[in-house]
Amino acid sequence: MSSHTQNDYRHLFTGLDVQVPLLNGEKRRYINFDNAASTPALKVVQDAVNDFLRYYSSVHRGTGFKSQLSTHAYEQARHIVMNFVGADPAEHTCIFGKNTTEALNKLARRFPYTKQRNVVLVSGLEHHSNDLPWRAATEVMHIALTPDGRIDEADYDRKLAAYGDRLALVAISGASNVTGYLTPLHRFAEKAHAAGAQFAADCAQLAPHRAVDMRPLSDPGHLDYVAISAHKMYAPFGAGALIGRRDTFERGDPDLVGGGTVEIVTLEDAVWAGPPDRDEAGSPNVVGAVALAAAIRLLEEIGMEAVAQHEAELTEHILQRLSEVPGLTIYGDTDATKAASRLGVVPLNMEGKSHFLVAAILGHEFGIGVRNGCFCAHPYLLYLMGVSGEEAETVRARMLANDRSEMPGLVRVSFGLYNTVEEIDALIEALKKIAADDYQGEYVQDIASGEFRPKGWAPDFSKYFAL
Length: 467
Hints:
- This protein is α/β, with parallel strands linked by helices.
- The protein folds into two domains: about 10-30 and about 305-465, Alpha-Beta Complex (Aspartate Aminotransferase, domain 1), CATH 3.90.1150.10; about 45-300, Type I PLP-dependent aspartate aminotransferase-like (Major domain) (Aspartate Aminotransferase, domain 2, 3-Layer(aba) Sandwich), CATH 3.40.640.
- Helices cover about 35% and strands about 15% of the residues.
- The chain contains 13 helices and 19 strands.
- It has helices at about 45-55, 65-85, 100-110, 130-135, 155-165, 185-195, 245-250, 285-300, 305-320, 355-365, 380-385, 390-400, 420-435; strands at about 20, 25-30, 30, 90-95, 120-125, 140-145, 165-175, 200, 225-230, 240-245, 260-265, 270, 330, 345-350, 370, 370-375, 410-415, 445, 450-455.
- The protein has a seven-stranded mixed β-sheet, with helices on both faces.
- β11 and β12 form a beta hairpin.
- α2 (about 65-85) packs across α8 and α9 runs parallel beside α13 (about 420-435).
- The longest helix has 20 residues, at about 65-85.
């Protein structure tokens, strides 16, 4: 396997050489395999934020130099985001917010449902953020999954036929945050449009790893709406964006009202501003927008094809090496030769050991950060793990009684641009030791959270950072 790109990107990031304390008293360079949740900051993002803070001021309507510069930077960031996803300012608008979750909630509240078309179709592999907002707004139907956890396109076709004249929108993730499966967005979008519906893509997981192209509205496979999060794109400064059809946001009332959303207000009436101002109530996160734009600029400079190639090499390597660890079950596609057709997200479990325990040992004894649990995709996890309805009800009852000790879940390894083959090798050796019970600590489980902690030891965080 080629490794010529493996170490090309680490110098671009801040904090990668930080040493963290281990249970045995040593310190070790932290290995972060929790990138599907959040990513570390690029140095160019940190630099851009620091440079901008000297000029930071309130945007829009300020006459001072700093206010005008801040407005210029904010609108420039909007243009950069739109260009990154292939949006056309004549057809689309970009609404800044705090993350993908907020973006999808906004779209769920702002979407122009009609009395006839009020059904939203989502898939069974969605993150809660692309399921619960729609449930709160209108009627939702779920596309079934194949036995290996992919979206069942045959069932998608059946549901399009069954609900076609009632269907308002299809909302599907571009990539699963659990298995890394990629969705054929444009093919699915073309089918949705043929049924008279619009199409929204949750690109929180996709955008940091693959190119996103909304395409013109005249293209049958276009994406009507795209949502992204900066904290998954190496810009953890609290920004996200909803990029969508301008005609949707030119009409209707904003879901949040207040400063910046209006043209004029009287005691009797309010005239709403045009997009995107109508949907950006209050003072916006200008610094977050600048950070996101700086990250996008670097991703574009590297090239999303190079990003994908690097990740494919990592994914191929881990899938090859995980077979060396006894007692592992890997969920999703385990074929290393197909690494390029998926994201570097690998969920697994170890026979006889709680996912809570495996994750705790990796962190406390090896300095390796992973995530365990259900990854805000409970229905998908239960499906992948084959948890029956009766078993799920038992678990639910225990959780409601504040007992998460036996909550079903997985250990998730997820890659970022900076990860290396050597880090994967360190993970494999750690998993081998855990499988052989070759670890130091005596771990005690907190029943309420389910988490394990080594008995008699906890890091003193104030030594590393304090306010």
